[in-house]
Design brief:
alpha/beta, homotrimer, uronate isomerase, domain 2, chain A, 48% helix, 11% strand
Amino acid sequence: MNDNLSRDLYTALCAIPLIDPHSHIDPIAPASRSLDDILGYHYYTELAHSAGMSHEPLRKETSPRDRVKAILGHMGRFDNTVQYAWFLEIAREFLGFTGDKVTSADADALFDSAQTIFSQPDWEKQVLKKSNIDAIFLTNEFDDSLDGFDTSVYVPCLRTDALVFHLDKPKIRQRLIDTTGVDVGDAQSLRKAVWKLFARFKAKGAKACAISLPPDFAPVKVPDAELDRALKALSGDSPIAKAVFGGFQFARTIAGKSTGVDESPQAAVARGVFWMLAEHCREFELPFDLMIGVNRTVYEAGVYQGQDLFDRQTSLIQYRDLFNAFPEVTFPISVLTSGQNQELVAYSWIFPNVVTNGHWWYSNIPAYIGRDLTERLQAVPKTKQIGYYSDAYKLEFVLPKYNMYRRVLAEALADQFVRPGRMSETEAVALGKRLLRDNVREIFDV
Amino acid sequence: MNDNLSRDLYTALCAIPLIDPHSHIDPIAPASRSLDDILGYHYYTELAHSAGMSHEPLRKETSPRDRVKAILGHMGRFDNTVQYAWFLEIAREFLGFTGDKVTSADADALFDSAQTIFSQPDWEKQVLKKSNIDAIFLTNEFDDSLDGFDTSVYVPCLRTDALVFHLDKPKIRQRLIDTTGVDVGDAQSLRKAVWKLFARFKAKGAKACAISLPPDFAPVKVPDAELDRALKALSGDSPIAKAVFGGFQFARTIAGKSTGVDESPQAAVARGVFWMLAEHCREFELPFDLMIGVNRTVYEAGVYQGQDLFDRQTSLIQYRDLFNAFPEVTFPISVLTSGQNQELVAYSWIFPNVVTNGHWWYSNIPAYIGRDLTERLQAVPKTKQIGYYSDAYKLEFVLPKYNMYRRVLAEALADQFVRPGRMSETEAVALGKRLLRDNVREIFDV
Amino acid sequence: MNDNLSRDLYTALCAIPLIDPHSHIDPIAPASRSLDDILGYHYYTELAHSAGMSHEPLRKETSPRDRVKAILGHMGRFDNTVQYAWFLEIAREFLGFTGDKVTSADADALFDSAQTIFSQPDWEKQVLKKSNIDAIFLTNEFDDSLDGFDTSVYVPCLRTDALVFHLDKPKIRQRLIDTTGVDVGDAQSLRKAVWKLFARFKAKGAKACAISLPPDFAPVKVPDAELDRALKALSGDSPIAKAVFGGFQFARTIAGKSTGVDESPQAAVARGVFWMLAEHCREFELPFDLMIGVNRTVYEAGVYQGQDLFDRQTSLIQYRDLFNAFPEVTFPISVLTSGQNQELVAYSWIFPNVVTNGHWWYSNIPAYIGRDLTERLQAVPKTKQIGYYSDAYKLEFVLPKYNMYRRVLAEALADQFVRPGRMSETEAVALGKRLLRDNVREIFDV
């Protein structure tokens, strides 16, 4: 930090216990077990691959130590990035590393330290404590077991991408039968299956329903008769059956205008299931996290999870009908690009049920966080801003990612509120606490 | 202000008498008469509603005092916003408030102070003087009376949204008959009516024609024969008549390419009237203010004036034909989003008849103003930048809104020109004066 | 520069010899011969015209001295812009000017100084030395002579706009015959002609193939049979022949989906030639510079080169198939707007063959450079960032443009790396050198 005020605010923000409202933590193995778990995070495999590393070290056959060496061997090409800075902070905070930079020469020593440190029986507890984590939200598939862990620390959330976008896959339909006992053949049976999923998750303390959505998705209500028709088209196993039914006309009301739309059965089912999920969020009183804008598999030869990108045309106007139709459901919205932030600011400023949610993925770097946060602080009610989530796959990432956010937040509070005399330091920290913790508690009813 | 240089520049900028080139002031009741007039401004009702206030306090039946209490009761949820800061500044500057923050506990005292202070017979004059306002532009409906006020202080402007987008409504057509004596049935009679409107406004000292436009509007010339056909379709009173004629094909030249377009009569009339307005701006030598990008009634259950949003796809390329066709007309352009600012910068840099105009609505917060202003200062000729307008509904808002702008401007001048040694302080203030006043005078011929 | 650290970094960056990877320098007349060459740069003619200057002084009949006077006479209207600052720096660095600002009163003296100074026999060498230029890339038409200059200083690059977008013009086809001896009538002969062009350029030391692309361009592979059909339609001389064949259906795979597309023969040829160029970049191991997003002739009455603008919808998703199909080709990407920078950051972060390339045209001002650069520094591997190119038409512009970039870069390095303790000054300068020079050498194999 460049000045005392920001440093003081940062220190005060770090003392606030976290409730992290979105992660990919596995509650059975939340902490890392080797350095390979850390450097296998897609940010590092992506950047190493993008900077010239082949797929070779990422194969199963490669030993974890060799994979770590390969990735560290390429890190010198991206030691300018904030992702490198996260890793350096992890090495210092959790691995006893004392250097100023990590290079491939440190690979063996770091790997060995990690083996020793991560194998301590209370390592998970140490990380939770050091990172000041009260609770962290999970990303659960609809058929995940929700037993065997403390759901007040690892909070279940129903992730619904598979239901919305992959119900044409026999495997998904079979998993749905296995979990709910319902064979989905029409709107009614689908509704029954979805209700059972929500009931199970709610009973286990789930606090949100969540989904990531492609740039061209525009939710609308699908009448049951059409959903029936589309589901029947999908349930034919052969591609021919789908083709025969594909591309038929649906009546749609989009942004207030009645129109006829040529839709594949898949698209009709996606819209139908999505709308049904919103109805169940209303019934079960769960916020519906929307993560808007990701195109899957854009870079076909990319590393695992390093294939997805976005486009520049997605607009929140596509969600107009949804926000109007469900005033009782809170929609915490994540956008993939900083270019969409002004829309998010304006929609949150106007719609009572739209709230801002963190800084997602490609926007999760200080340049975008700083800009987006400042805009939100100036124009969105403070009670409607969920400051940050870690999106972490392993607990060790919560600390450096939140520290990055807290640094940016401390500087924004200093510049926007304390220095212009609008708030005292105490008041500014209270505003920070609202973004970091209070709003998570209130919005998700934790 | 954080430093002496910025503070000095700010003070010097505050001494420049304002000509505010866009507002919604009622010239018959320009100043507030109660605190309800202040807090009834849509920014406050929107933010309070978005933060949880119901529509209940906004009903006519609610007493002004109770409405004020309800809004102040929710202000604690958005005291981070710049709109709250405007209100605090109004309370301090105009209501004798001395506290650091306004809470619901202050409601009665503030309400009573306002009653006393606003009822002074010379209150309007006091506000004009304290706010250093020489003149302020109005937003007049085509049939507004332009008598009974000093048009050199309250400058008439012809607002044309109703003519362009609502000529299908019998009420609007009747009002047009009442004002011009012309029943609009074809292109020729429409032209006659529009000419009469311009003649009347021009005679009363109007200085601009203005309109707000939806994101998908793309002006093109509509041949008289087609405008005739479309107007006839509209003039049938029954919806059936409109439907029968709806959706027919027009020949269009869009962005240099001939194409056939399916257009509703409404859309054809909108384009036809718009183009005709531009022709009359040319004839009557009036700038045509375009406020680009607003989608009306996106949030259907929103408060009055709190229902409008935008999308992310609007582009100035849609105005290419217009800018090319009317080199004699100056188009002061307001864009709704900061994301469009680079387009505005580039179009103003290239087209002699395009000038930048203020920071509109959802972009009217320091984060966006600062960014957009800096870009304009670095790349658009200084004679082509209209710095700011208040958009105010009551005079008391001119001061805090312009102060917000002047703070951002002072910092931009300090950072971009004075500190790098490109200008002296005196020269920087002159540049500020050009943006704040000189360009308004020259462009609108005040 | 506002502080010592930034100033020190700037000084160190200035000492790094430049390899400028994109310009429009004429290698036979690289330096200016009169002040008219400087002020005839389209930035000045655009801004003067936009600020009120007519086309009159730009006619051939006007004497260079009078043209210079006319442009300087309008400079007071845009002395706020960064382009004015470049000119002031040229006047000071190259013309012995000692004033703080240039006005029309300086026209004669500056014109005369320029005549004297520019006529020195070693002026070109002086400029190269003073500007610390090792090498500078050219923009060569496919039939440019590549003899008579030192190609290790003036590096040839094959510019391909004419081949891709104007092959319907008999003049272009004739020039292609004249250069390659091949009459292009079908895919096979086209391939032969393109191969010959690449062979000639490669033999003369060309280091890149380059093109500027309109916002709606979306490259896809065109099967030879369809390219044959489209080329035949084009080769009929009469517009009728083109119309007859126009608008026929092509089968396309766009973003992974098979689809039928109505395309004009021109569009099919454009896509076909473009894809073929990428194939030859692969064969001849040349990077393919893509400059994405320019709409030509938007302002029809604009000055030469001052007619082009952009829209707001272009997305890198349009290039998905290309980036996937050519993993062996490096694509240095320039985007026209800062709003596209996050896409560029993300695509470079994910695709090994996508690298960021400079700050093009309408984004070439400090406000955009600063923002775009910071985003790139935080998220793109440092080995994949080509910092800057001058885009200059005359050598004298390399110095002020690079100085502008180096100032922004020095401040970014200070703020992002040195002050937060992430790098020493020496390391920060090394990072700067990587962006300014090392990456150009490695990526273009200089």
